[in-house]
Each structure stands twice: as structure tokens, then as C-alpha cells.
Amino acid sequence: MSNLRIGVVGAGMIGRSHIERINNRLHSGAVVAVSDVNLENAKLVASEFNLKVFENGEDLIADSNIDAVIITSWDPSHEQYVLAGLKAKKYIFCEKPLSDKAVGAKRIVETEIAGGEKLVQVGYMRRYDKSYIQLKEILSSGKLGEPLMLHCAHRNANVPDMYTTEMAIENTAVHELDVLRWLLNEEYVSAQVLLPKKNRNAHAKLHDPQILLLETESGIRIDLEIFVANNFGYDIKTEVCCENGIVNLPTPATPYIKFDYNESVAIPADWKVRFTDAYDKELQEWIISSKAGRVDGPNSWDGYLASKNAELCSLARESGEIVKMSVEAKPLFYK
Ligand code: ISE
User: Fold this and answer.
1) Residue range 102-140, pLDDT digits in tens
2) Helices (H), 25-121
3) pLDDT, tens digit, 9 for 90 and up, residues 277-316
């Protein structure tokens, strides 16, 4: 079968890097078209990868020469493009979050169910990361007993000036909100957010760091540190304390150097470095499953729960209260 012809809506940082990986490294699919609200940016990326430029995302999505769509535009525009993709009955890969609002993600779920065909995958790439997969295998083997507590950290060296206090949860912690329910096979029942002393490296519109305290259905307690202006590098931690033992998320190997009377190991600069293999695997599998007419990865329901849970955590931060998170029954369509 011929290559899946892919159109990309949003030619910013992650959009460009997905185009590069698909066209230079992956197989069975090719990005053939691009659009961006910044037309000049779309033209620049198009000339680099020899793509057709569309002036607006909806036209690209509806074009009959496009089989499937990747949405990497800015978060508030995800919903409108996913809905356009559903209308055109195309396979859609939408970067996280599925929508910046739970109500938007819910509309996507309802539209997809009404259309009768599963078409949407959400870019929660950690589920494709080798170290998370190993962690899940160890927990599922049962040899460590039941998980009781998780100690997690999501640390970035820095974030752009437009990054706000809300985004620490809705753009950053949303990864853990997705991957931990996948890891534990459980939903969250409550959340609380603590605000430690403010980091002077964070700009005025960002309270950094933040601590999320989550509780799951069976009573597992999770503490998650979000520290996005740490000035030293990208650092992701998950320690799971079980009845008979403890397991830590493996850190991908980097060279251990002895030099000039010092020992050192490099820390990744950002997520693009730390999760590059996961992004490759995620998109390769998306191309293969789209060609086979399936959605195998995190779907709209997962995307909706991540956005909804993030919104509830934001509410917990604003109110200072412990917020209850009701467990919604998964629609049959997604089972
Ligand atoms: C960014 O949008 C991501 O998705 C990264 O994975 C995350 O680490 C970062 O904090 C977010 O801002």
C-alpha cells in the first residue's frame, strides 16, 4: 500500500520536528502539506521539506489528497481542527492537550461517538517511552505487590515568557495525569495543590514550583513536583513504592564521563531530547494503525480525562481545597 499522505496543521517547534522525523526517519507515511496561522512560517517549513502550503487548516484537512492529519497548532485551536478532521472522516493525531478546556475535549468525544468511527489519537508520547513501558511491565508482573505511593517530578530548565501558573498543570502536569492512570490502571478520586516558596527564576505570571497531591480509586497516593524554571535541565522522575519493593523509572543512559578531575553525566536540555525515541515510536505506530484503519494509542476519551483532570487540579490550586474527582464510566465506544 502507498504512503499515508499526511497534512500538518501548525508548523511551530513540535510541528516542524514531527515533519522532520516522518519525512527523514519513519516509513509508510509522508508529510505532503502544511498550514500555519503564520503563513511565512508555513512557507519556510514547506520549502525545507518540499510541501504544499495551505492558507488555512480547514482547507488542508478537507483536501482529497490528504489521508490523515497531524495537529500541532497552539492548544486553544486544537478543538476546531480535530472537529474539522472528524467531519472529513480522516485519521487525526492531535498533540496534547486534546483541548485546553474539558468542555472542548468532551465535544470531540461526543462528535466522534456520533460519527460512529474512532479516528483520534492524542500525543501523550510517554506511553511509548521505553522506560515507562518497562516500569509498567514490572508493576503488572505483580512481583512487587500492590503500589501504595508514587513520588514523581516533572522538571524543566526553563519555559517561555507566555507560560503561566495555569500551564504548569494544564500543559505540563497533564503528561503525568495521563501516564500515571495508564501505568496504574486506575482513575483519580481527589487532588490538592500546594504552592511552595516562589522560585525567583520564574517570571511574574508563573508560580513555580507547584506540588500536586493525587489519590486514586484504590487509595494510592501520588505526590508530583512541577518545577519548570530549575535552571539545570529536563528531569523526569517516577518512584513507585509497592508492598514488597520499590521501582524507579529508568533514566535513559547517557555517557558517564571522567575528565579534568571530575565525573559527569549529561542531563537532557528538554523533552525533545529526553523523549525523542518515544515520539518516533508514537508517530510510526500512528502511521501504521491509521493505514490499517485503527486507533491504537491514547484516544479522545484519554485526552478528555487528561484535560478534565487538569482543570480540576487548577481548581484545587485556586481554591486551596482538596477537590473530589468523580470517576466517569468509559463509554462503550472506547472499550
Ligand atoms: C511541553 O508542552 C511538553 O509537552 C513537555 O513534554 C513538557 O515537559 C513541558 O513542560 C511542556 O511545556
Assistant:
1) 999 999 999 999 999 999 999 999 999 999 999 999 999
2) 39-49, 57-62, 78-87, 102-115
3) 999 999 999 999 999 999 999 999 999 999 999 999 999 9
Q: Are 28 and 287 in contact (CB under 8 A)?
A: yes
- Residue 33 identity (one-letter amino acid): A
Q: Is the CB of 175 under 6 A from ligand 1?
A: yes
Over 80: is that where the pLDDT of 240 sits?
yes
Give buried/exposed letters for 68-84 (b at 16+ CB in 10 A, else e): bbbbbbebebbbbbbbb
Please, are residues 4 and 22 in contact by the beta-carbon 8 Å criterion?
no
Burial of 256 per CB tally in 10 Å (0-12, 13-18, 19+)? exposed
Tell me the C-alpha distance between 266 and 237, whole Å. Answer: 16
* Whether 170 contacts 314, CB under 8 Å: yes
Please give the Cα distance from 174 to 322 (Å, whole number): 18
Q: Strand 221-227 and strand 120-122: pairing?
A: unpaired
Cis status of the peptide bond prior to 97, with omega within 30 of 0: yes
Closest protein CA for atom 10 of ligand 1: 172
Instruction: Using the mean position of ligand 1's atoms as its centre, give its distance from the Cα of residue 105 in Å.
Output: 19
- In order of 185, 242, 249, the CA distances from 220 in angstroms are 11, 10, 17
For ligand 1, whether the C-beta of 172 sits within 6 Å is yes
- The phi, psi pair for 94, rounded to 5°, reads -110, 125
Q: Is 156 in the pocket of ligand 1 (CB under 6 A)?
A: yes
**pLDDT tens column, 180-231:** 999 999 999 999 999 999 999 999 999 999 999 999 999 999 999 999 999 9
* Distance of alpha carbon 170 from alpha carbon 103, whole angstroms: 14
The answer to whether residues 174 and 306 touch, using CB atoms and an 8 Å cutoff, is: yes
